[in-house]
Amino acid sequence: MGKVVATVHLLTDEGKVAGGHTLSLEAYQLKNRRWQPVARSKTDAEGKATLTTNNSAVSDTLAPALRLTEAGSPAPRVLAHGGLMQYDTRQQTLFLDFGKIERLEETAHRLQHVDNRFARTNESVAGAPVAPQISTLAVNRLVMANPTLTANLTRVDVAGERAKPAVEATDLKLDPAVTATLLNTKELDTLKAREVQLNAQLLDKSREFTLTNEQLSTAKSRISTLETNLSQTATEKEALAAKVKQLESTTRKPAAIETVLVGLGSKVSSSNTRMKAEALPYRLGNVKIDLRGSMSDDGSSIVMGEAGGGFSTELISESADTGDTKTSVPDVIGLTESAARRVLRSVGLRMASAHQQLAEGAGVPGQALSQHPAPSSEAEHGSSVMVVFGERKQEAAPR
Asked: What distance in Å separates the CA atoms of residue 36 and residue 61, rounded to the nearest whole number?
């Protein structure tokens, strides 16, 4: 076979000229078992196109099947299968006329199969032959939108085939209103598009309403929890206020001075008895009591003030009670003043302190530099030990 010359007149689904569309003429290749393009062309301003193959494009390896397609995703959009054919033996040219084709937009659909071997075929039927009267697309749109017509009319699908009605027609008569609707497909399309848009907006509002309700429910739950916590806090605050009031009343209660002194003396005596029972060589002595508050008129009781007064005692070694009046002087060099005082007191000695300014970079301020008597020497129990502590040299104030 030589070359193939195919012609087509492409229209939109509203019957208008579809110019500027790139079309492909495809043939089925037996060797690779697939459709392959053999010619391409673009429709002109009138929607017409002529597709011409070269002499070697169509051969005996191709099946006697041709179709008209345009680019699509995921598969080509099939505008037409076959057409009017005539072969010129002298010119060895096959002339193919697809006629007038309506280019489908939103009504394009997948090509239905009967044999399961074509189950994976994913081709879109995107064109239909133009009927001489009313567009098949317009009829199909109205039929699908009208349940009465769907049940009683024979539907013409986009492939040009007739489908049997679900119910046999019985004296069906179309009134003028139905006839006018059939002719006014553009207005119907506009109304349907508006309906789809409103439905989408309604769905969005419904989702927003649901989300707002969920947020409101969460907020109410949070408020309920906060109210419960606030109520518990108020209860705890009242309980603490009552406890503070009780403590204040107890603190401000007058106490007999004799009772306070006897009680403290009893505690000191009890402590001495316990240390003696445990054979500890110490006892409490030199007890000092500082009571601060408001005395009663007769001087027998006192209401303790906020300062509360004070109580102090010394831990005395029992060696002072024996015949030995000497004690070994401990080494306090390098200790702080408070630490040195505690060490000397623990062996029954007192501390007298003095301070010496340190030279730049010498010694540590606050630590003992020297002592007298010297460490490990003997000193009278209760006597004082002179300890010298270092201090920083004070800088002269600027004039």
From this structure: 12
